[in-house]
What does this fold into?
Amino acid sequence: MGRLRDRVEGYFNRLWYGDARPGLGWRALSGVYDLATRKRLADTGEPLPGPVIVVGNITVGGGGKTPVVAALATVLVESGKRVAVISRGYGGQTPSRPLRIQASDDPRLCGDEPLLLARSTGCPVWVCRQRRLAMQAAFDDGAEVVLSDDGLQHVALPRSFEICVIDEARGFGNGRLLPAGPLRQPLERLDQVDLVLRKRIGGAAGKGGLPGQAFSIEPGRAYRLGDRQPVDLERVEAFDAVCGIANPDSFFATLESLGLDFRRHAFPDHHGFVVSDLAGLDGPLIVTEKDAVKLERLDGLPETVVLPIRARLPAQVLRQIRSHVREFRSS
It folds into this structure.
């Protein structure tokens, strides 16, 4: 099953981000998807007890939204606000009722990104198949501000502010809607959001002509899986880089920017690792924090180094978010 998923993901990445033009059948299906999508863009107009800031993408796969959520949570907590994060909990067994994540939870149940956010921010994180119920649980629990990790397309969730994150390296691919392209919504959706951000790896510019404000994804201090002891990356001759995120190339680009020697081992997004996936790898492994929350439960791993990443948001963006929260008035 895992190999089939690998092949399907590889096929669509080539279709969406390669030079080939999608066939007539794919383009026809995109037209059907376009009609269905436009019907879902209506605003609920529901009153809110506090600010709800949605951070998402209009393309399939990650574009850096989770690091942005973590950065915003940290800034808002530092300004004295009680912040909660909500998520659907992709990669886990998404509950039909709101579930508050604990730092010791199994990512197979709650999802890897919610668990990572709960650990990295220290904020309450709620998951639910219906994000609106997760939002209500967060406010009932005392939150003053709710951040939604993903959810631009989830119109049942009322919101006061929308942020769309674009991956500068990938852009919009071939610019087509699903399934012929990677777009989950038409490009004019960008005109409706409050803020567009462009993710940049290591300060290096990617595709030109993209809208929004650039922000950088920067590596933090590497540490050893298990005891969290700091690791000097320059002392390691070569790594096996294991990565199961939506765009593994973004992680590999970060490693290249650090001048590291490594062998690439890419897996599908939210991959549920088992020991056999890593058989034959001498290590040491170097992994993302998102993958680390799953790998830490496996026995018999070679030495494993975790490389955290952080979103460095422009001061102007932080001022805009603080201003929105400060000026928000409950309906």
About this structure: The first strand starts at residue 52 and ends at 56. The radius of gyration is 20 Å. The CA atoms of residues 126 and 134 lie 6 Å apart. The chain has a mean pLDDT of 89.
